[in-house]
Amino acid sequence: MNLQDIQAALREQRFDAWLFYDHHHRDPIAYRVLGLPESLFATRRWYYLIPAQGEPVKLVHRIEAGHLDSLPGRKLEYSSWKEQQDGLRAMVAPCRTIAMEYSPNNQIPYIGLVDAGTIELVRSFGKEIVSSGDLVSRFEATWTEEQVRSHFAARDAIDRITEDAFREIGRRVRNGGTDEFAIQQWIDEALSRAGLTNENDPPIVAVNANSGNPHYSPTAESTKPIREGDFVLLDIWGKVQMPSAVYYDITWTGFVGKAPSDRIRQIFEVVSGARDVGVKTVQDAIAMGRPIAGWQVDEATRDHIVRAGYGQYFIHRTGHSIATSVHGNGPNMDNLETRDERTILPNTCFSIEPGIYLPEFGVRSEVDVLVRAESAEVTGRIQREIVII
User: Fold this and answer.
1) Which of 32, 81, 154, 271 is most open to solvent, judged by the fewest CB atoms within 10 Å of its CB?
2) Do 322 and 245 form a contact (C-beta atoms < 8 A)?
3) Which residue blocks in the chain are alpha helix, DSSP H?
4) Top-level class of domain 3-140
């Protein structure tokens, strides 16, 4: 934990304090931001208040009195519920506006981790509770230069593996046949050979109608064959095996045969066009120094598909934050499932991956966008045409 950076961020946001609270590991964000071990045996409630200025304050139960000793600040202890409430009241007394892992109307559930009763208790002290969403993005989702390098290392390997996977599909189809699960296992093994991990979350290999299911994953029992004339979607993600490494995550599509149908080409053109609109929306805003939130990127991308007449078939958000987890804790590109009003910050990364999912097939095109202080870039290759396998 960097106390000075957190306090500076609180002053920038004009918040009086950030209040962390946990019971039985309900808030993993608190552990990561504060640098507490995930193995901490927390059977009683603890609180940690970081004010915008001055000394932090901690409140712990007497039977777990040493739980926050690794953190700076003055310590209060309690045993009874009355002591606990009195101690919490004293902690927050100097503050008016307090950030917590809270999202109004649970609009962003990744942030809304504090239970309603605790929010009610702090409000009963006359305090205004605000969302810590932008603070979490800053301290959970922004990348160091070392993490940026780890992303590019993963990119180099996965771009090559994706290209090789399409070749492997073609080779196997010509020599006796293959199926989704076999190719999924081939990709997983290739990732491992390249020194990458996906933390036992295997890639998506989806053929024809299965590609119309955004989260389809083949199994040995459910796998479908891949044959001449089939449409194939590959969604591959991974990171290098080193501490704090971040993910690279892409989706490409191909066709086994001489040429896909006009219908497939048309849908691909709509989806890839929407992807490009989303990327340009981010790039233009960052270049002009204009703040932009995740919902705005989703809106621009989705409007392109809606205007083409396929809005009802774009059934998920435009993209997700990317960090040490493939779905990170920064802003998502979302004005469908949630309205993500968190500001996109420098040194954060996210996917832009619009899709159109029809009964007979689905097309998704996914790129990763890395935002810097004055520019934004797609970090890997951009699919411009359907791969002919």
Assistant:
1) 81
2) no
3) 3-13, 28-34, 81-92, 116-124, 133-136, 145-174, 180-193, 262-287, 294-307
4) alpha beta
Q: In the chain, which residues fall in CATH 3.40.350.10?
A: 3-140
Q: Which CATH number fits domain 142-388: 3.30.460.10, 3.90.230.10, 2.60.40.150, 2.40.30.170?
A: 3.90.230.10
Res 139: pLDDT: 93
Q: Any idea which residue has 């396929």 for tokens?
A: 310
Dihedral sign for Cα atoms in the order 305, 265, 384, 247: positive
Residues of the chain with CATH 3.90.230.10: 142-388
| Spatial CA neighbour of 152 closest among 60, 65, 239, 235 | 239
What torsion, rounded to 10 degrees, do the Cα atoms 276, 315, 370, 191 define?
A: -110
Q: Could you tell me how many helices (H) and strands (E) the chain has, helices first? A: 9, 19
Under a CB-based contact definition with an 8 Å cutoff, are residues 44 and 64 in contact?
Answer: yes
Structure tokens at 181: 């699960």
Token digits of residue 166: 């399409």
pLDDT digits (tens, 9 = 90+) for 41-87: 889 999 999 999 999 999 999 999 999 999 999 999 999 999 999 99
Residue 286 Ramachandran class (φ > 0 left, ψ -120 to 50 alpha, else beta): alpha
Nearest Cα residue to 246 out of 145, 374, 366, 101: 145
CA distance 165 to 247: 19
The pTM assigned to this predicted structure is 0.91
At residue 297, what is the residue type?
Answer: V
Q: Per this entry, what is the length of the chain?
A: 389
Each residue of 348-371: pLDDT tens digit?
A: 999 999 999 999 999 999 999 999
Structure confidence by residue, pLDDT tens digits, 184-238: 999 999 999 999 999 989 999 999 999 999 989 999 999 999 999 999 999 999 9
263 is written with which tokens? 């219908």
CA neighbours within 13 Å on the CB side: how many for 145? 0
Give the three-class secondary structure for 77. strand
